[in-house]
Amino acid sequence: MLGEPRADRIVIVGASLAGLRAAETLRAEGFTGSLTLIGDETHPPYDRPPLSKQVLLGKVAADRTGLPQRRRLDADWRLGVRAGGLDPVGKRVLLDDGADVPFDRLLIATGTRARPWPHPDEAALDGVFTLRTSGDAAALAARLDAGPRRVLVIGAGFTGSEIASACRERGLEVTVAERGPAPLVGALGGTLGELAAKLQRAHGVDLRCGVTVTALEGDGRLTGAQFSDGTRIDADIAVIALGAVRNTEWLAESGLAAGPRGVTCDAGCRAFDMYGIVTDDIFAAGDVARFPHPLFEYQLLSLEHWGNAVAQAEVAAHNMVSPGPRRRPHLTVPAFWSSQFGLNIKSVGVPTFSDQVVIAQGSLKDARLVAVYGYRGRVTAAVSVNQARSLDYYRHLIETAAPFPPAPGAADQRESPVPVPSDVPDPKLLSHGPTVALTGHLPDRRLTVVQPAR
Amino acid sequence: MHIVVDLNRCQGYAQCAFLAPGVFTMHGEESLLYTPVVPEEQRERVRRAVAACPVQAILVGEEAGTGAR
Amino acid sequence: MAADTLFQRITDYANRADPYPLYAELRENGVARQDDGSYLVGTYHEIAALLHDPRISSDRRQRTVPDGAAGTDEGVPPSFIGLDDPEHHRLRGMAMRSFGPPHTPDRIDGMHEDITRIVRDLLAGLADKERIDVVDDFAYPLPVTVICRLLGVPAEDEPRFREWSDAIVAGFDPTPDEDPAERQRAGTEARKTMALYLGDLAERRRGHPSGDMLSAFVNDAGPEGQLTPLETMATGVLLLIAGHETTVNLITNGMLTLLRHPDALARLRREPELMPLAVEELLRFEPPVQMLPQRTPLADIEVAGRTIPKGSPLILMLAAGNRDPQRFADADRFDPAREDNQHLGFGSGVHSCFGAPLARLETQIALHELIRHLDTPRLIEDPPEYRRSPVLRGPRHLLIGRG
C-alpha cells in the first residue's frame, strides 16, 4: 500500500447518498486523514426517492428531504462546484472554479442526471421539466399546485409512472406517452408491464403506448404536444422522464474506463482504466458505477438504485482503507422499490436477467402478488406487488441459484404455475431508460454504445 | 432530527405509522411515506417508532453536511 | 437427554420458570423431530426463514392428521390467525380498518393519554399496600380495561370472559398430557360461548355505532365489504383473547426482569427515554408468546439439512430463536439499550402480531409509571408461580414488597 492508508488524503467527488455513506464508513473504519466531498449541487446530501412521491403530492417541501448522518464526519464539504477533470498522474481533481484538489485516493460517486429532452428549443419552453434534483421537484411541485389543465409525462419507467400517479392523486389530468408496449416493461417485463398499464388506465391516466412525442409545441410557453401516430394534445406541463445520463463527461480525458454506461470497476469497486487494467487508488460507487456481479454471470451491471448506492459506497470505503487481503467484494443482491397508484412494488435480483416469469403467489386481478423470474432454469429475480413480506424467501432463492420455477406449495398460489416468457424488451425500444442495465463483460469504454434518446 | 427509511428493508409492518402517525403514513396498504425533517414535538414518538421497527429500517440523525461551506 | 423428548420437557410445568436451558439444547439440535411426528425449530435464522416461507401454512386443517384444536366442527370459523392468504389477508385487512393505518392511523397514538390515566389510577389504588401482586393489581387489569374500551366490551363482564378465556387458552395448550382432547373440547365450547357473547354485543351496535371496533365491524364497510356475523365473532374472540392474555405477560415478565437486573432498573429510572428499546429487549429476552405451535408445511421442506414432511406439525420456538448466539451478541444477557434487536417476540411475516403497537405502548407506559411509583421494590418470591401455558408464558402472580 502507498503511505498510511488510514491517515492520508481522500477525496470523494459526488456529495449525494453514495458519497455521504462512503464518507461515514471511512470514518467508522478509522480513517483519520483529510476527507473532502465535492458536489455540484449547493444542497447538503438529500434523499431523492421522496421527490417523486411525498414532494409531488405536496406533503413535504422539496428542500426538506435532507439525509440524516450516521456520525459526525469532520469533512471539508465543497458544495456548488463541479469537478471538471481528473489528472490521474498528478492525482488531482480539477474543479470548474479553477481550483484543484490533490488526493491520495479518490472515490467517484457523481451519479446521474436526468436525460434531457433532445430538442433544446423545445426543452426550454416554460412548462417543460425533468425530475432529478430537489430544485426540479420544487419547480414542478409549484406548477402542479397552480392546477394545470393537463400534464404530459414522457416515458413510463418508474419515475414517469410515479409522477403520473402523484398527478392523478392530486386530481390532475395526465397523459403518459411511452414508446414501448407498456409502463415499467423495461424493468419488469411483459406480465407486470401489462398490469401496470391496466392500473394506470384504471386510475384515469390517458396512457399511450407505442408512440413517441414528435414535438412539444408552444411559443415561450408549452401549449401541447404531437405524437408519432398523428394525434396531438393540449398540455401546459410536460415532464421528461426518459431515464438518466451518467455523469462521466468530466472523466473523458482521465484514461479511465468511463463512458455513457458508467465508470467500470471491479467487484471491489476499483476503477478500470481504458485498457482494462485496474487502478489502485481510484474507486467508484453508486449510480455512476458499472460493476461485475457473480449472480448474473459476471456481467457488468449499472444500477440506479438507492440500496446499491448505500451498499456499494460502504464496500468502496472499506476497501479504500483496507490492505488487499482485507478487501471485500460488492455482492449485494440488487433491490429497489416503487410506490405508485396505491401499490408498493418491490424487486430483488435482476428481473431483466430472465427468460421466464411465473406468478408464484397472489393474483394479478387483486394486484397483490409475487412474480418470480428465471433464467435458464434458475431463479434470478422476484417482484412483489403489495406483498413485500414474501420477498426475503425469494432473495434466498436468488442467492442460492435455486431452480426455476420455484418449488410449489405456496398457500396462496392462485395463478397458473406454468412460467411464461418474461418479455423483457430491448432497451432501445423504450422511452424510459432501464434502471438496471446489463452491459456485457468488457470494461473498455470504446465498446459501449450510446442509445438515442427516443 | 432527520430521518430516512431504508424502503428496501421495509416490509410494511406499519409500526411507525401507528406510533408516530404525524410523521409516518401508510399510503395504501403497504407503501410508506414519511416526513424527513422531524418536528420538535414529534421526536419522542419517532424514537418509539425507530425502536419498534421490526426490520430496523429507520435511520435517525442530525442533518448531514450542515458544516458545509 | 434425547432430542425427541424435548417438547415434552419444554411443556412440562416443572420447567416453566426456566425453559431456556432446554431452548439451548433445542438449538444444538437444529431441527428436532418428536416421537409424535412433530418438528421443533429453535434457531433464529431458520425460524425467520420459515416465517417468510409461503409454503408454511397457519391452518391446522392442513395437517396430515388434523387435530381437535382445528375448530372446524363447531360453527365458529377459524379466525385469521389460523388461516392462510388470501383469506387471512382479507380478514386481517378488514379488522385493521378500524384499528390502524391506513384507514385509522391515529387510533393507537390517540390512546396514549387514556392508557396513562388507567395506569395512574391503578397505581393510585396501590398507594397504601405494602405488598403488591403485579399481575392481579396491575398487569392484568390494564390490558383488560384497554381491550374492552377498544373493542366495546363492558368491563364489568370481565369475570365471565376471563373464565372463557382461560378455557380457550388451555384448549390450545399443546402439552402432550393424558387428556388434551378434553381440554380442547372445553376450549372449543368456551370459544363458541364467547363468540356468541361478542356477536350479540356487535349486533346491538348495528346502526348505533359507538366508536369502538365491534361497532366498526358491523357498521363500516371497505372495498372488501363487511365482516359477516360469524367473521365478526371469530375476529372479536381473537382480539379479546390476544389483547389481554399476552400483554399481561409482557408487563409482568418485564417487571420481573427489571427486578432481577437492578442496574437496568436504575438506568431506566435515569434514562426514561430508553424505555422503547428496553421493551424491545424484553420482547426478545422474555417473550410473552414463546412459540407458534400451529404451523404446517404444505410441501416437503428442507430446514437446516433435514426434511420436514408435508403435513407435519411444525412448532417454531420464538423464545429459543431470540436467545440464539448466532444472531444476538451476548444473547443471554438482558441489555435494555440493545441495538440491532430484530427479535421474534411478535413473530414476523404476514402473521406478525396484529396488536403489536398497542402492546408496545401499554408496556412502555406501564413499566415507566410502575418503576417511578415504586421507590425500592423487591421480589418476594423468585421464581414466582407461573401460569400453566407453555405458549403464553408468564407468572400467575408476582409478589413484590416496597421498602
From TrEMBL, chain A:
Gene3D superfamilies: 3.30.390.30, FAD/NAD(P)-binding domain. Pfam families: Pyr_redox_2, Reductase_C. The keyword Membrane does not apply. It comes from the Bacteria. Residues 9-313 form the FAD/NAD(P)-binding domain. SUPFAM superfamilies: FAD/NAD(P)-binding domain, FAD/NAD-linked reductases, dimerisation (C-terminal) domain. Its cofactor is FAD. PANTHER family: APOPTOSIS-INDUCING FACTOR 1 (PTHR43557), RIESKE DOMAIN-CONTAINING PROTEIN-RELATED (PTHR43557:SF2). This is Pyridine nucleotide-disulfide oxidoreductase. It comes from Streptomyces kronopolitis.
TrEMBL record, chain B:
It comes from Streptomyces kronopolitis. Keywords: 3Fe-4S, Electron transport, Iron, Iron-sulfur, Metal-binding, Transport. The keyword Isomerase does not apply. Its cofactor is [3Fe-4S] cluster. Ferredoxins are iron-sulfur proteins that transfer electrons in a wide variety of metabolic reactions. It holds the Pfam family Fer4_15. The keyword Ribosomal protein does not apply. This is Ferredoxin.
Automatic annotation (TrEMBL), chain C:
The lineage of its organism: Bacteria, Bacillati, Actinomycetota, Actinomycetes, Kitasatosporales. Residues 57-80 are annotated as: Disordered. PROSITE patterns: CYTOCHROME_P450 (PS00086). It comes from the Bacteria. It holds the Pfam family p450. It comes from Streptomyces kronopolitis. Keywords: Heme, Iron, Metal-binding, Monooxygenase, Oxidoreductase. Belongs to the cytochrome P450 family. This is Cytochrome P450. Signal peptide: none annotated.
